[in-house]
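Reviewers of the previous submission asked for a worked example of the structure-prediction workflow described in the proposal, so we include one complete record here. The input consisted solely of the amino acid sequence. No template or homolog information was supplied to the procedure at any stage.
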Amino acid sequence: MNKWASLASEDSSLFLKEKLDQLGKRRKEIETGIQALEATIKEIEKKSATQELVMPALNKFPDVFEHTQPYQQKELLRLVFHKTILTPDSIKLALFGSTRNRTTFFM
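From that input alone, the workflow returned the following structure tokens.
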């Protein structure tokens, strides 16, 4: 009886060791993936525009828009607005970078 118990113990011990090795490898893969994602996020944050950079440009937009040709105005609007919805009662605008926050103007 003790012989069977020791065999079962050895088999389960081997099984547990294999599983722990697999889990250890998986953990390393996940940690490596997380590090890669964190590096990517930092790189994106370095390249992103800040509010201090964007606001002066947006403040100049009406002056620039006023002095452009109609085809240029159309292209400028396409660069600024993500989505525009016109209804008989309102105009809804979604700017690029803030698609969750739509501004509604009522006519």
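The chain has three helices and three strands. We consider this example representative of the routine output the project will generate in years two and three.
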